[in-house]
Amino acid sequence: MSSLATHSYSRIDCSETHSDCRTLRHDSRSLGVNDPEDLPFMLCPSGATMAVLLVHGFTATPWEMRPLAEFLAESGIASLAVRLPGHGTSPEDLATRRWEDWLGASLDGYEILSKDFQVIYGMGMSTGCLILLTMAQAKAFNGLVLFSPYLRVLHKLAPYAGWLRWLRPYHEKPVEAGLSERYYNRRPLAGIHQINRLLQTLRGQLPHITCPVLAFNGEGDQTVDIASGRQLVDLMGSSVKIHERYGPDVSHVLTREENPFRRTMFAQAVRFVQELENPGTTVRVR
């Protein structure tokens, strides 16, 4: 990113000037988050009339949602990226957390945004999608954008994490070069067990979730079953629901620069929001 762009985003970054976000960041530091880029953040472009709650994926941090937040800001949309408990600290910390803790942090984020905005969307990455969907019955999202949603994890032993966690507490997974500060290379099976619990809760709720939804999956995803992503969308009770399936050059984490269609997806997300908020426009249903 150019120095000019960096300066531009610094002017709209209200992470330390917005009192509630500043509190989130302080609490994260006190819990052991040492890297500033892994802290919750908030972007507030001048004149924004709507906001997006951003929720990152399993073992990740708010950092992976920053490119999306900046793209939204370019379109005049504010955002708050929360940090799910146990993330940005240590695998041992994550092993002690329940999915209800992740939900609680996301609900707190929604409440923060609702003080300043009446129009609130949710956008999540992977497991962050599941958290947003679980919130959707209780919180009046104007719509959801889901990046790599799923109902099934590809690893054949994932369904058995509940008892495997006692035999082998961690699964070693290499992290790409330069990302060791952003993702854990040791995944606690206790955390996978929490995802299984979350999925079990969510499946029965999907027909009752009626807000508009746009979802993306890539055929190059080696983490989750992308067919289950389409199944998730099909099960929702929304009258407006779109599922976009990209090819084998698109992997799991869609918000990072290795996704060759990242900006295309971001533009689709913004257009989805704008069409919903502008009367007289047509949103595709397919």
> Given the structure, what is the number of helices?
10
How many structural domains in the coordinates?
1
Rg, Å, rounded: 18 Å
Please name the fourth-level CATH homologous superfamily. Alpha/Beta hydrolase fold, catalytic domain
In terms of structural class, how would the helical and strand content be classed?
A: alpha/beta
Low-confidence stretches: 1-7
Q: How does the major sheet shape up?
A: 7 strands, mixed
From the N-terminal CA to the C-terminal CA, the straight-line distance is 36 Å
CATH architecture: 3-Layer(aba) Sandwich
What is the residue-averaged pLDDT? 92
| Strand line-up of the largest beta sheet | 1-3-2-4-5-8-9
Instruction: Please give the number of β-strands.
Output: 9
In CATH terms, what is the fold-level topology?
Answer: Rossmann fold
**Percent of residues in beta strands?**
15-25%
CATH class, named Alpha Beta
Inertia-based shape: globular
Q: Tell me roughly what share of residues is in helical segments.
A: 25-40%
Succession of helices and strands: HHEEHEHHEHEHEEHEHEH
Describe this structure in words.
The protein is an alpha/beta fold and 286 residues long. The protein has a single domain, classed as 3-Layer(aba) Sandwich (Rossmann fold), CATH 3.40.50. It is 38% helix and 15% strand. It has 10 helices and 9 strands. It has helices at 3-12, 19-30, 66-74, 91-94, 99-114, 127-135, 161-167, 189-203, 226-235, 262-277; strands at residues 41-43, 50-55, 78-82, 119-125, 143-147, 170-172, 186-188, 213-218, 241-246. A 7-stranded mixed beta sheet has the order 1-3-2-4-5-8-9, sandwiched between helices. Strands 6-7 form a two-stranded antiparallel ribbon. Helix 3 links the parallel strand 2 (50-55) and strand 3. Helix 7 (161-167) runs antiparallel to helix 8 (189-203). The model is unreliable at 1-7 (pLDDT under 50).
